[in-house]
Every structure is written in structure tokens, then in C-alpha cells.
Amino acid sequence: MRKPNDSLTRKTPTVKSFAWLATVGALAFSGSALAAQWNLATPYGDASFHTKNTKQFAEDVTEATDGELTVIVHSGGSLISHGEIKPSVRRGTVQAGEIFLSILSNESPVYELDTLPGVASSYEEAFALWQASKPDITELFAKEGLMPLYAVAWPAQGIYTDFDLTDVSQLKGLRIRAPNINTQRFVENVGGKPTETEEADIPTAFSTGRVDAMITSSSTGKSMSAWDYVKHYNDAKLWLPKNIVFVNKRAFDRLDESTQQAVLDAAKAAETRGWEASKADADESAKVLTENGFTISEPDAKLAEDLKAAGDKLFQDWKSRAGEEGQQLLERYRADLDA
Hints:
Helices cover 45% and strands 16% of the residues.
């Protein structure tokens, strides 16, 4: 499997304000000389179940360590923009971060597997895929001085349009929000024009005509009040992508053993809680969409077949790039499902 591309241009984080500079430039200590503080950057807003879970993780760490380690969550991209979070954690500008895992797809095929249509279309499959790929992801992160803490899936991805989607040809020429490489390729395979738009920018993108449709979860549709722009959601269950929360390994290693264990325990609890929250949010979000005038449908046999064909092209391409290690990962995943 390909190694991360170290030749990629590393962008310098954008300074949001002088206050931001003061926050991350200060020594990460508070209270007493032994009380450490971590800044954790996430691009997701406070209404997201992911952010709520991350904040609970932070509270659990503070409580378990009696305040010896405080984790401050900076939500909604208020501290660092999404694409700059991983480089910033790697450099130690901030100690921890949360990202949409597949935005790293250009670094390794491992990072894009959970956004391949048809590979994992249920929570059971998505969790098995995480367990199978976790060793590879941990190894890749370790090469950059990073350590995964936990990962949580989004609800299954569907297609938002302003019409009842019954045929893949209806997507031809539409500007479709696609937040990662695989989604962009998938949109191209169905004849659409991929548009990269961060979650927080979705309302503006629709209102200004930059996007006509989007591929995302019922959860994002709810949090973005998608009913203001479109009225149809095809619950195609294309894939269940993940967010991953991770830490600078040097920052973790500076903690004493008991504090490290408290972080790991809180992370384990956050992962369990987060997956359950995702399931609950999927159900609640569908209900909210319906209450706000959405028509929710599922693909008929012909549409499902056409969407699968578009996804199969991506999967075959992935296998050719991932090589033998990718095949071994798939075998572990399938073995976990059959166990």
C-alpha cells in the first residue's frame, strides 16, 4: 500500500485572529504547574452529535484526572480550518484534533476505504471496517507523530435533490457537493459536477447557486436545515464515513501513566457512545426532515443498480492502487464480518 505522500505541500495554518495566536502560542498549562491543557480543534458545529460527543470526551478527561488535564474543544472551525487540523496537530500547534477521515484520501488508499460505495453500508459493516483498518491507520498516523484516540461513523450517506430521484440520468450536469476525493469521483461517474464545500458553507452554497444537490447524511441535512433549499432525500446508504479524533504523540507521552490511561478510557467510552449516538441521530434526523416537508425515498432496483455500477468503478480503481496490503485489509474486514 502506498505510503503517505511526504512531498505534499504543507500549508501554514491560517491565523484566525490575534486571540487565536495567543491561545495556541501560550504554554499549555493551567491551574498548577502540573495541570496541562490540550486544545482540540474540530470543524463541526456545536449542534453536531460528533461535537457533543467530543465535548463529553473532554469533560470525562478533566473529571477523571481531577483537572490535571483539561481538554478545550474549539468547534466549528473557530480555531483552525478543517484541512489544516492534521498538520497543526502534527506540528504541535494544537495538541488534538477531529477530522473527516477521508479528507486524507490523497495520502493513502487506507483513508478512503470507508467512502467506497458498497463496501460498508450498515453500522455493523462500518464498525467491522474500522476494526479491520485501525492497525493500518494507527501505523500511518504514528509515522507522523500522531495517535488515533477514537473514530465514530456518520449515518449512511444519501442524495439530496430538489426533485424525486428515480433515474441516475437526472444527476447529469448537476453541481453536487462532494467533500472528499471518492465522492467527487462518484459524482463524476454519475454525470454530475463535483463541488467541494465544507459543512458550514452548505447553506451559502445552495443560496448562491454553487451547488444544486449534495451527497451527505440525514444528520447533516438536519443540522444545515436542508429543507430551506431542497425537499427530497434518497436514502441510498452509499457508505458510512467516519470522523477520527487524534492527538500529538509527544503531547500524549508527556502525560504521566495514570493520566494517559484516563485519556484512553475516555476515548474508549467516547467511541462506544459515539456510535450509538450516530444511530440515534440517523433516526431522529430522518424524522426532522420529514416534519419539515422532506420526501424520503430509497432507490428502486434500477437506480440501485446504476449507483452500484458507479461505485464499482471506484472500488476496482482502489484495489489496483492499494495492492497486496489493501487486499489483506479487505480479507481481515470480511473475516470480521463472518466471525
